[in-house]
Amino acid sequence: MLPRATSQTMPRWQLSAMLATPLRVQLVVGGLCWLALSVWWWLSWAGATVLRPDLHGLLMVWGFLPPFVAGFLAAVRPRWLDLPVPDSSRWRTWALVHMGGVLAVLASSRLPPLLILGMGALALALMVWSLDHARACATSQSQDRLHAVAVGASLGVLTLTIGWATAALLSAPGPGLHAATLAGFWGGLLPCFVVALDRMTALVRPWLGWVLALLLLRAGTAGADPATDLPLLRCATGTIQLTMGLALLASGLDRRRQPQRHNRVTGWTLVAAAWGSVGLLLDGMGLLCRWPMGNSLALHVLALGFMGGLWLTMGSRAAAAEIGRAQALSAAEWWLLVLLQAVVILRVLAAWPAMPASLTTWAAGALA
């Protein structure tokens, strides 16, 4: 019979404890940004407010996930780079700057001047996190810095692309902003999570460098005009995407390559990897068949199913390790992951023309 949980085995919830480490600070900010984005998105679909269509992708790329990436790097820095845990007070400041930027961009639908102010705040916070991690990688004496350097380079791409997006907003919003957003997604955000997946499961260890290089290639072609793109390059990129998706799916199904220790965390990590393979396959088919809906579906599957799933599992695992909790996923967190799968399925179904438009509203509500 299991012993009853006591105050010694189950720490009480405290605001001061929640803000005591960089990981918790960034997880809180990322969660609040996710909540704000999903509620605003749901209200816009319900007709209660307005969100500019071009800002939806912008906020999903530079809104709620970068704080988590930065906080995760701060938490794993002692283990990955053999460095001390950074001070959380400085991280609180820039986390609040980032959250203020997200709220300003959301409010710009009503007050347009807030858009540039919000973008500047997001870019500044990203630049600080990127430079801080680059300095940590440069000063570390650790022999194995591959994953830390790869995520740091991805943060740098995110910083450069948000500068591109800000310049596009100042000059000619539209194609430039769309291209910058896609480049930030494929070349900055997605590689961060691929590296984290490899660190946790080693599913892509033999060909990690190739995967990152090919994602950068996809980022370079993501914003190309379909009317003027190069057919050979598009077909080559699509074939590569299909190959990557099949390889990731095969690695996830190969028991010899799966993690040796199976628990709730590794199980849900493999579910996220499965969504990742589906997203890559959809994007490859979209490129090869000139199927724009396939590319759009791939973005939502990768953002919600792959990165959202890893966001919850890795965040829960790291937070549990900080307080010495043996079980990384509680029952509530397990049900959150189940609900996330419903969000992905609803969003995929809502993209099909024959499906009712109310499915998108249901997907937004479930995400909120």
Itemize the secondary structure elements and their pairings.
Elements: H1 15-18, H2 22-46, H3 53-62, H4 65-81, H5 88-107, H6 114-139, H7 146-171, H8 175-201, H9 208-222, H10 231-253, H11 264-288, H12 292-323, H13 331-350, H14 358-367
Helix pairs in contact: 2-4, 2-5, 2-14, 3-8, 4-6, 4-7, 4-12, 5-6, 6-7, 7-8, 8-9, 8-12, 9-10, 10-11, 11-12, 12-13, 13-14
Give an overview of the whole structure:
This protein has 368 residues and is an all-alpha fold. Helices cover 76% and strands 0% of the residues. Helix 4 (65-81) packs parallel to helix 6 (114-139), helix 4 runs antiparallel to helix 7 (146-171) and helix 13 runs antiparallel to helix 14 (358-367). The radius of gyration is 20 Å and the shape is globular.
Tell how many strands the DSSP assignment holds. 0
Q: What order do the SSEs take from the amino end to the carboxyl end, as H and E?
A: HHHHHHHHHHHHHH
| Distance linking N and C termini | 37 Å
Secondary-structure-based class equals mainly alpha
Mean of residue pLDDT values: 82
Largest sheet: none
